[in-house]
Amino acid sequence: MLLQTLKNSQITDNEISELMISQEKVAHVQSNNPLDHALLVLIKSGYTSIPVLDKEYKVQGQVGKAQILDSILGMERIEMERLHEYFVSDVMTTKVPRMKKDETFGKALMLSINHPFVCIEDNEGAFLGIMTRRSILALIHRHLEKI
Ligand code: AMP
């Protein structure tokens, strides 16, 4: 019953600000960045995968360590020297879970089944931040605790 209500409700502005990692705190790269820069950002931030944004801060896709390493995998070794030959656009995926700020919590929950994070956009498509599976589960847990 509570979960049904939660599923159909919009995430309140309060919850959004609580759940969302805002844009300025999200590690990201741009599609024209060379792969060595992207790998550096991924390693330094410690994340498996991060959003790819364009110059106007709109979401273009996501890129992860696995895709980058796969692109420089030779027959016998990882050819690190090839990292600067490629750009993020060569390996990124444009398939990225995204939703508008005013969509329902059910959508965030559904997207988080298959994705560790969901990109949140405003109505013009500008990137506002990400919601992680961890924060979505934490919100459900908090509501369940209240029962
Ligand atoms: P977490 O639930 O904290 O493990 O985060 C899940 C995934 O969300 C991570 O593996 C990253 O892909 C992404 N993520 C979380 N926090 C950030 C951040 N500050 N910047 C970029 N990506 C993030």
TrEMBL record:
> Which portions of this protein are annotated as coiled-coil regions?
none
| Source taxon at top rank | Bacteria
Record keywords, A-Z? CBS domain
Q: What range(s) does the CBS domain occupy?
A: 20-80
Q: Please name the SUPFAM superfamilies in this protein's record.
A: CBS-domain pair
The UniProt record lists the keyword Cytoplasm: no
InterPro entries, alphabetized: CBS_CbpB, CBS_dom, CBS_dom_sf, Diverse_CBS-Domain
Name under which the protein is recorded: CBS domain-containing protein
Q: Which NCBIfam families match?
A: CBS_CbpB
Q: Which organism is it from?
A: Salibacterium salarium
Q: Would I find Ligase among this entry's keywords?
A: no
